[in-house]
Structure formats: C-alpha cells, structure tokens
Specification:
five-stranded parallel sheet, Rossmann fold, 24 helices, elongated, Helicase, Ruva Protein, domain 3
Length: about 550
C-alpha cells in the first residue's frame, strides 16, 4: 500500500528533525549524559515535530546501541517500536481518551515493570483535551512516577493545561519552521522520490504551509499526484491559490484608484472559480508584506519570495504611505471577517475593494485619517496646495542629455494654473553668491522618502541652498545629479519641494567658484567666456 509522504519521511532520529535545534540538541545532550527527566511537555503549533520527537525520544531511551543521543534504528527494540510490537511504548490520543477512567488505566499499568524495554514511555498527544478530573488523577503519578516510567505530553494549546501539570514537566517549545528550512527539506524529499521541484515552487509550498512540515509534505504529495514536474503553477492550481500576478494587479488598481479595472479582475477570478475568501486572505498577506518592507526595509530574512517579486513589492511600497497600507489592511480584514461569517463572498470582496479605490465613499475614522495623511504635508505651515496639479509642474524639456552642472532650464511658460518662479535668469556666479542655506531641506528629504526611498537615499547627506528662484543642491556624490537628470526623479523632487515650501523652484547643482566641473566647451561658449574675462558685459538670452 502507498504510504503518504509525511508518514514515509517522518524523522527517524533527532538529526532529521527540521527547524527545531533548540529542542533536539538539548534532548541529545540529556540522553548522552543520562540526565533523564520523568516528564516532558512538548508544545507548539501543528506539524512542527512534537509527536515525531516524542517517538524518537522513546526509541532513544530504550535503544541498545545509541549513537550520540540518537537511536540506532537497527536494534531489536528500535525496529519493534517502529512497527508497534513493543507494548511498553504507548501512544494515547487524549482527544478521545480524556476521562478519569482512562488516566486510571495508565496509572495502573505504570506500576508494572516494562516487559521488554528499559522504560515504559507514555506519549499523550493533545493532552490539553483531558478533563479536569483526569488532570487531577494524573497529578501524583506525574510528579513521582516509578523509576521505569517516562511521560511525554504533547499539545498545541499549552494555555489550557493546569499550572500544576506544567510545573511537573520539563517544557520544550517547538517553533514554526522557517520557510527556508521547509523548502530545503521538500527539495530533498522530492529528489529522493524522483520528482522535479522548482525552487520557487518549494518556497511557495513552504509559505502556504505556515511553518508546518506535515502540511508542506501533504501539499507536495498532492502536487506529485498532478504532475511529476512541480512548478509554481502546479502548486497554485493544486492548492487553489491566486497567482501573485493577480495580487500585484489588484494592488496597482488600488494605487491608481481604478475601480473599473479592479472589478474586472474580480470578475475574471470569480469566473475561474477562485475562492473570494482565500483571495481576501492573500491580499491581507500581501499588504502585510508591503508593511514589512515599508517599516523595516529588510526583506531578505522576513519575506520568502523571488527577486522579481521583491522588486515589484518594493516598487508598490514606494507608491504607498504607511497610512495607506494600514488602512487597506484594515478594510480587507473587515471584509474577510464578514466573508468568514457566511456573507456573500463576492459582494463583500467587491465592496472592500471599492472602498479602497474610492476612499471618498468611506466616512469611517480610518478612511478619513488615510485621506488626511495624503494632504497634511501639503498644508503644513498653512500652505494651500492642489496636489492633483503637481504632476503638471515639470513638463519642460530638461532631460538627461541637456542637464549639466549649470542652472536647470527655465520651465515652459505655456503651462497654465501652475505656480511659476518669477524673475530673469541670473548669472550662475551671482546665484551662488546670493545663496543661503535652506533650513527645510531635511523636511524635503522626508517628504521625498514617502515618494521614493531610493531617490531619498541618493540625496542623503546633501545640503541645499536657496537663491531667488533656484534651489542649488550641494553633493559630492555624482549619483545625486545623475538621478536628478531623469525627468521622473526630478518630478518627485519638485513635488516634495512644493509640498514643503508651496513654491516651484528651478533645480541645479551647488558649486562654489572654481569648483565647477570642467566640461568640453563649444566655440560660442569659449567666446562668451573670453568676453566676460575681458570685462565686457554680456546680455544673457532668456
């Protein structure tokens, strides 16, 4: 008969247990030193190795040829424990054997010497399911059992166990297994089983399993029944997951406030029989990942995604404020709660997304706070700014080709309804001479960071000077000015300056006299320079 993977690949020794070194190393040391406790408590979430470690512990206690704390797996007792023929090892399910009479039977059996093994070992799984009377009956024996008896209690809900029981056991906490450890184990099992498993598919299975190795192996088993070549698409189809591309598309619609497009995506997913509750849950997880990137900016160890997906997440994070992300998460969580209570899944999903794409329809406190956060920097210090017009402030022809360490080209005068710097173009030396340090530059960089972290990083440790209609940026890093040559980046900088100062400035580099970069000059430029040096006044053309 076929044996499912999670049973076939159940760890046989402590070294095979994935992701629980804090437990396995301690148990091995105790077994090697002979410091055996009479009662152990294994606690942790499902599928993390509690029962497996209990069985390994039972074998190691009775093994005839132990190897560095691990059972040999070959002696008569190890084989007998594996096939269940050694009656001195008892595994009891407390969910169905939770009465006082069941515990009394255990106490009565414990008084007898083991028939074949060195120790009688009682593994009580889901021990929190025992009744109050059963716990009370177990107390005395658990505290002072016969020398040949060892109790191993396992539970997923340690808070339900009486303190009197906890104080009589040596406790081991099993952690959720990291996605990397699960993926590594899955790749090993797949190789042994003759399966082809992509790295990204292994990471996706690990992410879905939520730290449970048993769940991961079960999903791998289902995927293998579908196709021996297991890809990300196979995992998504088998597990009924929504592809990450849909999550990015939906988030892009939320950023653009495109209600029609987002409803079209939901229509498509619904027709493909995607579960709306699962989709809502995955969107919550997606915004949680965006929140982690936004707040910590350390995604390597916290998020398990491909480099391409991390790049997409970083791009979306730069276009959202933390308030936006928290508000979206709150709306989706509320929708998920309603879906879980049996409401119409599709309608609740659509309503939640409409609230995110049309925030003016939501008058809740969180919605108002989200909208205020978009405007508060613009109205800081009493400045009134129409944010919707900011994108129109930089339609000039300045680009990477004609941007140079001279003053930025004057904006086109045919743009309407946009604040414009007044006055004539000045000589660069006069501009530098009249420049004063800009006190609000740090505030501009903070605002810039909300638009683009990479842009703000490029301008870190810079200074700025104001001279009339110009802002001159002082930096020794050439990358700063390369970024400013790009129209999109210059647009972000102007937007940040506008939000802080309420004015539109021309942008340029700050170079003191004699520090300007030497660049090739054409004949006309050389002629003008010669004229200036001779004291001839030259009228600049606007």
């Amino acid at each position: 008969m076929y044996q499912v993977l999670y049973r076939k690949w159940r760890p046989k020794i402590f070294d095979d247990v994935a992701g629980q070194p804090q437990v396995t190393i301690t148990l091995k040391n105790e077994l090697q030193s002979g410091r055996i406790n009479h009662a152990y408590l294994f606690t942790g979430s499902r599928g993390t190795g509690k029962t497996s470690c209990a069985k390994i512990m039972a074998k190691a206690l009775n093994c005839l040829n132990p190897k560095e704390g691990n059972p040999c797996g070959e002696c008569e007792l190890c084989r007998g424990i594996d096939d269940g023929s050694v009656m001195d090892i008892a595994e009891i399910d407390a969910a169905s054997n939770n009465s006082v009479d069941n515990v009394r039977n255990i106490i009565e059996e414990a008084s007898f010497n083991p028939a074949k093994a060195k120790y009688r070992v009682y593994i009580i799984d889901e021990v929190h399911m025992l009744s109050v009377g059963a716990f009370n009956a177990l107390l005395k024996t658990l505290e002072e059992p016969p020398t040949h008896v060892v109790f191993i209690l396992a539970t997923t809900e340690v808070h339900k166990i009486p303190a009197t029981i906890l104080s009589r056991c040596q406790r081991f906490d099993f952690h959720r297994i990291t996605p990397e450890a699960i993926a590594q184990r899955l790749l090993f099992v797949a190789e042994q089983e003759g399966l082809t498993l992509e790295d990204n598919a292994a990471l996706l299975i690990a992410s879905v399993s939520d730290g449970a190795m048993r769940d991961a192996l079960s999903l791998l088993d289902r995927c293998a029944s579908t196709d021996k070549n297991i890809t990300v698409n196979v995992v998504q189809n088998t597990a009924g997951l929504t592809g990450h591309d849909y999550l990015f598309s939906i988030t892009d619609c939320i950023i653009r406030k495109d209600t029609g497009a987002i409803l079209a995506i939901i229509e498509q997913l619904y027709n493909e029989s995607k579960d709306m509750g699962r989709l809502c849950y995955e969107l919550i997880e997606h915004f949680r990942n965006l929140m982690m990137i936004k707040t910590l900016n350390k995604t390597t160890t916290l998020l398990t995604f491909s480099d391409e997906e991390k790049t997409k997440m970083k791009t979306q994070t730069d276009m959202l404020t933390l308030e936006n992300i928290l508000y979206a998460t709150d709306i989706l969580q509320s929708g998920y709660d309603k879906i879980s209570r049996g409401m119409n899944k599709r309608i609740e999903m659509e309503l939640s997304l409409i609230k995110l794409t049309a925030p003016e329809l939501d008058i809740s406190v969180s919605a108002l706070l989200d909208r205020i956060s978009t405007l508060e920097r613009a109205v800081k210090r009493g400045i009134s700014v129409n944010i919707s017009q900011v994108s129109e402030t930089d339609n000039d022809n300045t680009n990477s080709e004609n941007f140079s360490p001279s003053i930025e080209n004057k904006p086109q005068e045919n743009q309407r309804n946009i604040p414009r710097p007044m006055g004539k173009t000045m000589d660069y030396d006069d501009i530098v001479k009249n420049a004063v340090l800009m006190k609000d530059w740090s505030e501009v960089l903070k605002v810039l960071k909300s638009h683009s972290i990479t842009m703000a990083t490029a301008f870190k440790n810079t200074k700025a000077y104001i001279s009339g209609d110009y802002i001159l940026i002082d930096s020794d890093n050439e990358l700063t000015f390369k970024r400013l040559k790009q129209p999109e980046e210059r647009e972000r900088m102007r937007k940040a300056v506008l939000e802080v100062t309420g004015r539109v400035y021309r942008l340029g580099p700050y170079k003191k006299s004699g520090e300007q970069s030497v660049q090739p000059k054409d004949a006309m430029t050389e002629l003008l320079d010669t004229a200036r040096n001779s004291g001839v006044k030259v009228q600049e053309e606007e």
